[in-house]
Specification:
The complex is a heterodimer of chains A (101) and B (204). Chain A is an all-alpha fold and 101 residues long. Chain A is built from 3 helices and no strands. Chain A folds into 2 domains: 1-65; 66-101. The longest helix of chain A has 34 residues, at 67-100. Chain B is mainly alpha-helical. Chain B has a single domain, classed as Up-down Bundle (Four Helix Bundle (Hemerythrin (Met), subunit A)). Chain B is built from 7 helices and no strands. The chains are: A mainly alpha (101), B mainly alpha (204). The interface between A and B is large, with 52 and 50 residues.
């Protein structure tokens, strides 16, 4: 069986670590800042996904796997979450409307 | 001839041979487990988002949490992910001693995180926070907080146990590089979930 066993330099891990810590400090600074709520939330969500992508790509080695595996993981999560979210949201909004009556 | 041509076309269309993902079955199963577990947390966090939307008010996080303390927990968990990645790298290079040392460092990080989470829970419970009531007047807050951080904490605890077993097996020469890598995948996933919990629960 063909297996990919990429040897990633330790330097890559520690650079990723420094980057993640830097982004975390940036997020905390945003959290404390007095910027309006909507841009604050959008900025925090963007940085959250950046952090998540860095962990998946370098710590979990997803960046060095075959495209098939990357698509399976990314699409598997996104598509299933989208389907679940779509169906649950309608019920959720209905419950919200009922509770407001 | 035409049959041979047809077989070649099918093979080139598939392009993956007998191992389309180019990973062993156990690593593929770990990825599938991670996908399903990610959906569990996606459901919990979506539920939290919905509950927060329907609540007329939500406690001010600066009144409830000590953000510096939570930031330290985050720092510890991210650092433990870096030590775990180093352990996986060492295991792949065949450096068993270094791999064991870094897995043990990761276990220490996990234990520190769990200890801090226990302290956070104890403090909040001491202030009167329960699953259905709390002093901040938002009943859903306690349910969302204890459920989400509790689920994550249980993942950290199981990760610590798995890593301790991997460290022991590795020290005894019974673990393979792939075994360390699989435990590492799980640990990084636990860290990844915390990124979402930290942002959505403590910062927004």
């Amino acid at each position: 069986m063909e297996k990919t066993l990429h040897q990633v330099s330790y330097r890559v891990y520690w650079l990723t670590w420094i980057l993640l810590l830097g982004i975390t400090l940036f997020m905390i600074a945003i959290g404390y800042s007095a910027i309006p709520r909507l841009p604050k939330v959008l900025l925090l969500l963007m940085t959250m996904f950046t952090k998540g992508s860095l962990i998946a790509a370098y710590f979990m080695h997803l960046r060095f796997e075959k495209l098939q595996l990357i698509y399976t993981v990314a699409l598997g999560i996104l598509v299933t979450a989208a389907i679940l979210w779509t169906f649950i949201t309608f019920d959720g909004m209905r419950i919200l409307q009922l509770s407001l009556r | 001839m035409s049959q041979q041509h047809s077989v070649q076309t099918m093979e080139s269309h598939w392009g993956g041979g007998v191992s389309p993902f180019a990973v062993g079955w156990n690593k593929l199963m770990m990825w599938l487990f991670i996908i399903t577990d990610a959906l569990l947390f996606a459901g919990l966090l979506s539920g939290y988002g919905f509950v927060r939307q329907i609540s007329p008010q939500w406690p001010d996080r600066s009144e409830v949490f000590h953000l510096e303390f939570i930031a330290l927990m985050t720092f510890i968990l991210i650092s433990s992910s870096a030590t775990m990645a180093t352990a996986v790298g060492a295991a792949r290079q065949g450096n068993r001693k270094m791999a064991t040392r870094f897995v043990l460092l990761t276990v220490l990080g996990g234990l520190a995180f769990l200890g801090m989470q226990a302290y956070e829970w104890t403090t909040l419970i001491g202030e009167g926070a329960r699953l259905y009531t709390n002093p901040w007047g938002v009943p859903h807050f306690g349910a969302a907080f204890f459920l989400i951080t509790g689920f994550h904490g249980s993942h950290v605890l199981s990760g610590v146990i798995i890593l301790a077993i991997v460290a022991l097996r590795n020290a005894l020469g019974r673990s393979t590089a792939e075994g360390v890598e699989l435990a590492g995948l799980y640990w990084h996933f636990v860290d990844l979930v915390w990124v979402f919990v930290f942002t959505l629960f403590y910062l927004i």
